[in-house]
Design brief:
This protein is α/β, with parallel strands linked by helices. It has two domains: 251 residues, TIM Barrel; 64 residues. 48% of the residues lie in helices and 18% in strands. The protein has 14 helices and twelve strands. Strands 1-4-5-6-7-10-11-12 form an eight-stranded parallel β-barrel, surrounded by seven helices. Strand 5, helix 4 and strand 6 form a beta-alpha-beta unit. The protein is globular, with a radius of gyration of 21 Å.
């Protein structure tokens, strides 16, 4: 199993989308190439870069940056986001992209996929966002396609795609488990590599992905990102789990421990605090850069916003304290 590390790019910066919404990105840094190189140094087999501007708005402002990433990062770079034309797919392949990923366009224009697969064998990947009833979502989960997982897998397999990315539409990777049933369905339908693209909550989820098998086939890869940057596990730990291979069946089937409601709520509050800290840090960095650039006009806007984030963090900490130290019963 290959370990893919995700780099989301919006407006030239590395960002995180805590709720999958491109209108509420959390700024991580201004050096996506450095982030990709760091993932490679930590052991990522492949970088999965997502151009959010191209995907959401049809704006290709990030493409020169991605071209440089392909050239400078020492592991293969797979490009997703806004690959909607024959010309753009060919351009990315010509500049050295390991593979290009097509989502909505692949479902809506299958003739284009057939042509690209014929002209660029081994280079075209199809990404499928699957709802619980196996209908495929398109346009960033905002619409239903009227198409279903098995039929599209078979059609795209006939076209000659190199691999499939399979994710669950609407799922929060940090709180909800992967839909193992959907991944098993994909493994049982096609012989092409299937890659779990929705992330995992923890290393136990990764072990379960390793154990999935249908028709003698196992998953070819998994894409991670937020779960690593949130400190759930390290890339090194994930590599160790993958190197150890599938766990014994009895370990996979061990019962899941149900956590108390208070613990789940506390975990949710801490995640919100982490998101607020990220936002506050991003605004502080912006304010700092304004001063370094001699531009103090915008600085008054940052102070109240930072104060609001910090006040909200204090409220959340107070709620956590109440959960962990409830008042004695009268």
């Amino acid at each position: 199993m290959d370990l893919y590390a995700r780099v989301n790019i919006q407006d030239g910066a590395s960002v995180r989308l805590p709720h999958g919404d491109v209108t509420e990105p959390i700024h991580l840094d201004n050096d996506p190439i450095g982030r990709a190189r760091h993932w490679a140094e930590l052991g990522a087999d492949i970088i999965h870069v997502v151009d959010l501007n191209a995907a959401a708005f049809g704006d290709y402002v990030n493409r020169p940056l991605i071209d440089r990433m392909i050239e400078q990062v020492p592991v293969p770079v797979q490009v997703a986001g806004g690959v909607r034309s024959h010309v753009e797919a060919k351009r990315l392949i010509d500049v050295g992209a390991y593979r290009v990923v097509m989502g909505t366009a692949a479902i809506e224009d299958q003739n284009m996929v057939w042509e690209l697969c014929r002209e660029h064998p081994g280079k075209i990947v199809v990404s499928l966002d699957v709802r619980p009833d196996e209908e495929l979502a398109i346009r960033g989960w905002t619409e239903n396609s009227g198409r279903y997982l098995e039929e599209v897998l078979l059609e795209m397999s006939s076209a000659g795609v190199a691999a499939f990315l399979v994710a669950e539409a609407g799922r929060d990777a940090l709180t909800e488990p992967p839909d193992f049933r959907i991944l098993l369905e994909a493994l049982g339908v096609v012989t092409e590599p299937v890659i779990a693209a929705g992330g995992v909550r923890h290393l136990d989820d990764l072990r379960r992905l390793l154990a999935l098998e249908a028709e003698g086939r196992r998953l070819a890869g998994v894409i991670v990102g937020r779960e690593v940057t949130h400190g759930r596990f390290t890339l090194e730990q994930a590599k160790e789990v993958i190197a150890a291979g599938p766990p014994p069946p009895e370990e996979v089937r061990k019962p899941v421990i149900e956590l108390p409601r208070e613990s789940l709520r506390t975990a949710e509050l801490y995640r919100e605090i982490a998101d607020l800290c990220d936002r506050a840090a991003a605004q502080a960095r912006i304010a700092s850069q304004h001063h370094l650039d001699g531009d103090t006009y915008h600085d008054p806007d940052q102070g109240p916003s930072l104060a609001g984030h910090l006040a909200r963090i204090q409220e959340l900490l107070t709620e956590i304290d109440r959960l962990q130290n409830p008042p004695p019963e009268a």
